[in-house]
Automatic annotation (TrEMBL):
<keyword id="KW-0460">Magnesium</keyword>
<feature type="domain" description="4'-phosphopantetheinyl transferase">
    <location>
        <begin position="4"/>
        <end position="99"/>
    </location>
</feature>
<comment type="similarity">
    <text>Belongs to the P-Pant transferase superfamily. AcpS family.</text>
</comment>
<protein>
    <recommendedName>
        <fullName>Holo-[acyl-carrier-protein] synthase</fullName>
        <ecNumber>2.7.8.7</ecNumber>
    </recommendedName>
</protein>
<keyword id="KW-0479">Metal-binding</keyword>
<feature type="binding site">
    <location>
        <position position="8"/>
    </location>
    <ligand>
        <name>Mg(2+)</name>
    </ligand>
</feature>
<dbReference type="InterPro" id="IPR037143">
    <property type="entry name" value="4-PPantetheinyl_Trfase_dom_sf"/>
</dbReference>
<keyword id="KW-0963">Cytoplasm</keyword>
<dbReference type="GO" id="GO:0000287">
    <property type="term" value="F:magnesium ion binding"/>
</dbReference>
<dbReference type="GO" id="GO:0005737">
    <property type="term" value="C:cytoplasm"/>
</dbReference>
<keyword id="KW-0275">Fatty acid biosynthesis</keyword>
<dbReference type="InterPro" id="IPR008278">
    <property type="entry name" value="4-PPantetheinyl_Trfase_dom"/>
</dbReference>
<keyword id="KW-0276">Fatty acid metabolism</keyword>
<dbReference type="InterPro" id="IPR002582">
    <property type="entry name" value="ACPS"/>
</dbReference>
<keyword id="KW-0808">Transferase</keyword>
<dbReference type="Pfam" id="PF01648">
    <property type="entry name" value="ACPS"/>
</dbReference>
<keyword id="KW-0443">Lipid metabolism</keyword>
Length: 117
């Protein structure tokens, strides 16, 4: 049974400005393991990665029904499956979490579906 659905979209240009001007934001959004992946990427992919992860965490908080604040950015972690697909590896949700991330040249969008048994 679906408990919640959330979606969020982020402008890549906004994230790029934040990376260039306020580097502390990156570590506020990303967990340590996410940050390791982030550091391995070229700049363009770093922007897409951070935008996608931020959108995922916002989408999760919407699906959770609380918004960011009751659930923090560090409470949610999105790493990768062996095939490269995103996977939520840490969250306060005890059921299954489905995640999808997509990018264009200007936006990143993420959707989260929370399922309970």
């Amino acid at each position: 049974m679906i408990k919640g659905i959330g979606i969020d979209m982020v402008e890549l240009s906004r994230i790029e400005k934040i990376i260039n001007n306020k580097s502390s934001f990156v570590q506020r959004v990303l967990t340590n393991d996410e940050y390791v992946l982030f550091q391995q990427l070229p700049h363009k992919r770093q922007v897409e990665f951070l935008a996608g992860r931020f959108a995922c965490k916002e989408a999760f908080s919407k699906a959770w029904g609380t918004g960011i604040g009751s659930v923090g950015l560090q409470d949610i972690e999105i790493l990768k499956e062996d095939n490269g697909a995103p996977k939520v590896t840490k969250s306060p949700h005890e059921g299954t979490v489905f995640v999808s991330i997509s990018h264009t040249d200007t936006f990143a969008v993420a959707q989260i579906i929370l399922e309970v048994d």
